[in-house]
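Below is the record:
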Amino acid sequence: MPKIPVSDSLSASCLLLYLNCRNDKTAQETKVCEQPSLIYVVVLESLTRSKKQNDHPDLIQQAHSSSFAGALQNHIYREKASFHTPGHKGRLSFNEKRTLPLEQDLTELAGLDEWAEPSGIIADLENRASKVWGSRSSLISVNGASAAIKAGLWACRSHHALNARRVIMPQNAHKSALEAAILMDLDITWANPNWDEDLGIWLDVDRAALASAYDEVCSSSGPSVPGDRVLVMITSPTYQGFGSDIADLSSYCREQGLILFVDEAHGAQIVDGGAIAAGADLVAHSLHKVLPGLTQTGLLHIGSHCQWPELDLECVRSSLSMFTSTSPSYLLMASIELAVRTHDQALVERLALLRARLQQGLSHNKLIDLVAHPLCVSQAHILLAPAAGCSFSMREIQAYLEGAGIFAEALMGAGGDLLLLMLGTGSNEDDIDYLIDVLDELGKSSSGSFSFLSSSKQRAHYPLPARRRIVRSCADAWRSPTAQIDAADALGRTSAQLICQCPPGIPLLVPGQIIDEEVLSKADRKQFLVVADTLE
């Protein structure tokens, strides 16, 4: 039976009241257990994972509205099927009791190795990860792919023989890369990924886009020379699962003497054709998006074909240490071991079967289409779109799903007409069948008035693919004197802030960018932070 933490005895009483209203065996088997400074309500798992609608949603909301832990449990109660990160879906655990083993929340004690300089069990785990993904070396990140990205950029920037102060990034680069550019005073040249006008999302970065960006670097700063390398940062797969041809981009980078770093956070589950095998010099992985690592777990790999001897294990490890807590979580590392064990072809095949099951189940649904795209390289990423003639918006459909306890990853697309679902290691056939059943029920409805309400935060639509107009480097604009002004006065000013909603973690506005009409309409803010001298 799962333990549900609540903040105080009043919250516990509210929940017990709710259970008694149910008048069933669950209420009889519920009890309040007090421990030092902690109260638990023990509830049958059938209650938290039932597919029935809440009998008394007002009471359960009262029971969980007074604390952070309560809010988490309220979501757990409401959710019947997870189609979002993390990939374990709350079903995989360290032990048979499915409890969090707090006794394993340890520090760097004798026999438990040291994360910053591993030589025992942590070194062994990193070696196993290196073999699984085929890297030259793999390093554990307990601050997610975000820290891995920052560390990889810093390794390239700080090494005296590389001094990679210029970087080419796609417009859909993750905010962690932008934050690193600000911290490290990197000079960014933006590469334009291909854009799907119908879907309203970015796709891949091809050789032509990379070559165009590099030509721009050369024309503005001169060609790269030893000790002044140009770094290329590519996001593949994208947040939606679309992949670039990393092998071709790697070939181009080798021809031009460029360092290739791939943000493959959404592709750690890919077995064949991943960025490491395709020739990337550095690769960052997230282990919680699809694999069963706990949130905030990742890996930073030195590619097996890395052409830069400067990017050795010592250099990369010291860089990762710069962006990591001195108290690394052993619980996170234990879940990394689970992710390493479950990364295999069987997982990929299972995800493909689940995807095919959903596609088959939706084949007769007149409201929803599953988007098929040749550039989708991840079986875990699923995009749903309204079918032709559908009278509901995707936001309404999302609200209907959430009312039924089905939570997706995010709304997206230029008009918010796409819904991203994420499969993971913990996904199963019941999730797929329940989603199909709920969508079938929606198809029988003749109006847009639902009995279900969504609590989702309104998602900002993705920006259009027009090139950003950058007049200052991100670092320069960030460090300049600033002023807070009303949105009505912000048009044409130079931004001094990074506006980036997570998910998806892709910036709408970066420091040094001119604020235009599109930004004003999509940022939905009353005020902006701008470079002060642009007000003169």
Q: What stands out?
A: The longest helix spans residues 345-361.
